[in-house]
Amino acid sequence: MSALRIGCIGLGNMGAALIKAVSTRPDTSIHGFDPDKSKARDLAGLPGFVAAESIEEVLRNADFVFLAVKPQIMSKVLTEALPALRPETCLISIAAGIGMEQLRAWSEDRCAVVRVMPNTPAMVRSGVSAVCFEDPKLIEAGQTTIMELLGLLGQVHVLPERYFHAFTALVGSGPAYVFHFMDALVQAGVSAGLGRPQAEQMVAGLLEGSVKLVQETGLSLSTLQHMVTSPAGTTIAALNHLDRTAVRGSIIDAVHEAEQRSRELGEG
Q1: Do the domains 4-164 and 172-266 sit in the same CATH topology, yes or no?
Q2: pLDDT of 1 higher than 80
Q3: pLDDT over threshold 70, residue 176
């Protein structure tokens, strides 16, 4: 495994998760910068991590640089980064809503840029990320390295940029939908007399076990659903109610609403 020089500008939740995951890789140096010095102190002691004093210091000591900053300050960050950008630098943005064209414009096309959309379970290395490799300046070896690094955070899917709005709506926002559903199940359990802490544990176990069934059996979602649904039983009564109240359609509509909002934000 060859030595890698990684940088990260922005050490918030996603930046910190990335650094923690990458620090498990041998022969890797990681220079990180955040204006909030306490965030770098929280990462002190991780293998290979160096708290940089500036954006320029990160760029001077890294070949693959993750931009883990808020979308509204990306332009400012890249303007500050411009003097230190080299042709061999690869910028990897995880900022939502900022497209490849804008990233290339702000970096004055001085180096390769990559767009990534992770989701929050990446914080526990169980995320699902989309990555766009549409910059012709990015060589194949660079793509392989980026796939390896992102793989430390969970699943990685290579997508054309035109599908990023759909991915954002389905997977980027997806954890919130799952937590909303889980919270509703917990409330139902409490309404039926269960204690809230116990109901929360039960629902978390329910989701974990159900996902494991999908992953390990290879059966379709409809088949797994039918396995639980006995004729004239409790499950079919509940499913009939969900169908009468158009829950499935509401979920589909909600994702479509999120996709449309993603497009609106992308247009500025």
Answers
A1: no
A2: no
A3: yes
* Cα dihedral value 29, 123, 163, 99, nearest 10: -50
Give the model confidence (pLDDT) of 85-108 as tens digits.
999 999 999 998 899 999 999 999
Q: Residue 7's beta-bridge partner residues?
A: 31, 65
Contacts of 266 (CB under 8 A, 6+ apart): 97, 99, 165
Predicted confidence (pLDDT) per residue in 105-153, tens digit: 999 999 999 999 999 999 999 999 999 999 999 999 999 999 999 999 9
Contacts of 212 (CB under 8 A, 6+ apart): none
Number of alpha helices (DSSP H) and beta strands (DSSP E) in the chain: 12, 8
Superfamily grouping for domain 4-164: NAD(P)-binding Rossmann-like Domain (3.40.50.720)
Q: Provide CB contacts within 8 A for 253, sequence distance 6+.
A: none
Q: Taking residues 3-15, what's their average pLDDT?
A: 94
The architecture that CATH gives domain 172-266 is: Orthogonal Bundle (1.10)
Closest CA to 133 of 106, 155, 157: 157
Supply the pLDDT for residue 2: 61
Alpha-carbon span 49 to 22, nearest angstrom: 10
| Structure tokens, 244 | 């009468």
Does the global pTM surpass 0.85? yes
